[in-house]
């Protein structure tokens, strides 16, 4: 390539980058994007320690055992002061047996309620019209 073509190509690349940058910056500098507060439960990252301190505290299963002995009023104060778990919305609990790896046995599935056993066997569906008799029963065969 000649030096003229290379310089034109570089100049074109710079223009493309500035256009892309102008397009993207307008999106990131928008005040609406920064100031939105979502009204539905979600996990949100809070980066500053002071901001995290302002969030309400909640408990997990292990912490619930620790806080069980406290009176309700003292419990709320303790949670607000030194709770390890803080978020705007309390996350749902992990389902039972979620972290068990592998397939459970059939007996375990029945105990957990994944499989329901019916005590009565399934009835055979009845035909609306009976089969046509093509042969007579064995006891009534004709002897020749």
TrEMBL record:
One of its GO terms (molecular function) is damaged DNA binding. Keywords: DNA damage, Nucleus. Transmembrane segments: none annotated. Residues 44-69, 73-107 form the DNA endonuclease activator Ctp1 C-terminal domain. This is RB binding protein 8, endonuclease. GO terms for cellular component: nucleus. The keyword Transcription does not apply. Its main location: nucleus. GO terms for biological process: DNA double-strand break processing involved in repair via single-strand annealing. It is found in: Nucleus. The gene is RBBP8.
């Amino acid at each position: 390539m000649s030096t003229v073509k290379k310089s034109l190509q570089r100049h074109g690349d710079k223009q493309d980058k500035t256009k892309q940058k102008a397009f993207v910056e307008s999106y990131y500098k928008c005040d609406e994007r920064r100031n939105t507060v979502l009204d539905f439960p979600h996990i949100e990252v809070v980066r500053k320690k002071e901001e995290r301190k302002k969030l309400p505290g909640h408990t997990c299963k292990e912490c619930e055992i620790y806080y069980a002995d406290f009176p309700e009023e003292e419990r709320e104060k303790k949670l607000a002061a030194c709770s390890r778990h803080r978020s705007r919305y309390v996350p749902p609990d992990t389902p039972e047996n979620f972290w068990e790896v592998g397939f459970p046995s059939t007996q375990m599935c029945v105990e957990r309620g994944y499989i329901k056993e019916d005590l009565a066997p399934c009835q055979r569906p009845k035909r609306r019209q009976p089969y046509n008799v093509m042969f007579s029963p064995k006891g009534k065969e004709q002897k020749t």
